[in-house]
Design brief:
This protein has one domain: Alpha-D-Glucose-1,6-Bisphosphate, Chain A, domain 4 (2-Layer Sandwich). The protein is about 30% helix and about 30% strand. It contains four helices and seven strands. A hairpin with a 2-residue loop joins strand 6 and strand 7.
Length: about 180
């Protein structure tokens, strides 16, 4: 089982990359609540009714590493809503001649998971787009606080949701079986 990984380069120092990664509201979601820049800190992420999770910061090594543990998770577009629970998210930062390289791994997000395609696509948008832009230019493209326009990488999850029967319909069918 291969965990989801991606690597990208930026034109800033490893410390600037680290500072941006821990500034989660400016690249992932403006609606994040909680502590994102202290070991032991916990924060809540949510995107409308599609995805919500609670994450604990487990490791911070300035200019080198950020690690999180997903404590709980809910997706409304797959059969196993808590699929990410107990998975780990790791950012490893290394210096390069022109700046820094960020190696991202989501340990436990594997192709066998139902959300893999949607989640890897979303991570790609957040990391290769929003986070990279935040590091290089000082401006990311996080999810808006509430009821804003969804980022393009949210579209696959919206398509999956529209193709699934509603939870109420599924429960009614189960009760009649």
């Amino acid at each position: 089982m291969a965990d989801y990984t991606t690597t990208f380069a930026v034109e800033r120092t490893p410390q600037e990359a680290f500072d941006a990664i821990t500034n989660v509201r400016d690249w992932w979601s403006q609606a994040i609540e909680g502590v994102t820049d202290q070991v032991g800190g916990e924060f809540d992420y949510h995107y409308q009714d599609v995805h919500r999770c609670t994450i604990r910061v487990t490791e911070l090594v300035p200019g080198r590493k950020v690690a999180w543990l997903v404590l709980n998770n809910y997706f409304n577009f797959i059969e196993d809503p808590p699929e990410w629970e107990r998975t780990k998210v790791i950012f490893e930062i290394s210096e390069t001649d022109g700046g820094a390289e960020i190696h991202f791994t989501h340990l436990g997000l594997v192709p066998q998971y139902e959300c893999y395609d949607v989640c890897s696509n979303a991570w790609g948008g957040y990391l290769g787009g929003s986070l990279r832009n935040l590091i290089n230019t000082g401006e990311g493209q996080p999810n808006p606080r509430e009821d804003g326009t969804a980022p393009a990488h949210q579209h696959p999850a919206e398509v999956l949701r529209s193709e699934r029967p509603s939870q109420a319909t599924s429960r009614a069918e189960d009760a009649n079986a």
